[in-house]
Design a protein that fits this description.
- By secondary structure, the chain is an all-beta fold.
- Helices cover 0% and strands 44% of the residues.
Length: 325
Amino acid sequence: MTQRLQLVTGNLRFPVSFAFTPDGRIFFNERRTGQVRVLVNGRLLPQPLARVPVVTGGERGLLGLALHPDFPRPPWIYVYHTTRRGLRMENRVTRLQVVGNRATTAQPVVQGIPAGLIHNGGILGFRGNRLFITTGDSGRRELAQDRQSLAGKVLRVTPDGLVPPDNPFAGSPVFSLGLRNVFGLAFQPGTGVPYLTENGPDRDDEVNRLVPGGNYGWPVVTGRTRLPGFVNPLVTFTPNIAPTGAAFYTGTRYGPGTRNALFFGDWNTGTLRKLVLSPLNGSRVLRLDAVVQTEPQGILAVVNGPDGFLYFSTPTAIWRVDALD
């Protein structure tokens, strides 16, 4: 397997999520420090863009990051973090107003998402003017099937945190349910359909195509099922790979079969994988390949770069994929 990786920057502290600004800067989260950091032309600025309050340990901390779709006008970025409200621990989405390379204002957008030592989810993504939020079951599996709980779900809200009138459950931010722990979220070019990578228990990691109101089974079922009322995954992995960040590739830097393919990382083997889906509705898997190996470090986030290359992060670095098979 041939591959060429270029180190963008190293000596990082668990950059769970990162995003490119329109002017080419990279904003990234440090999970354990609660800092949002800034890269300018590959140089890490000494001062963080922001520090948000975090509770750490296990899978808690500063997790997801997304830019407002019209950034920098308005100049909002959104972060997902584990924090405290009074004596209670929760996950929360906060938006930060950015001026230059510093955040001047912080506003809560969604609060009260159950938090735990494990399974906090936390990946954010915009499709148009709607913010999608992935949440884990927070270690309490029964919450994934409880429509009154925000745990084990994909949530869909406006940039101000309000419930859109066309959500599948009236008055609820819940878009889909029955999820254990989601580390990857990507939107298919053209259709805008969301796709997820989901971590299973001791088997059946999944890649899922989301439908509004869909129930993905956890903890009643894992993997494929014939039981009515549940949506089957596109692909499963046993033994587990712990799939992570995901992105549909929209550039032209690589060979045939890469454009509009879904790329996602995995934590257990440090592999970047390519999933080719059926045209139009993307409901069938045509091909699944392993295209980049980074072992022994697992992959965290996968992002389309403005230069047409794919980028991904590991616990200590951000890399550019210059070539892949």
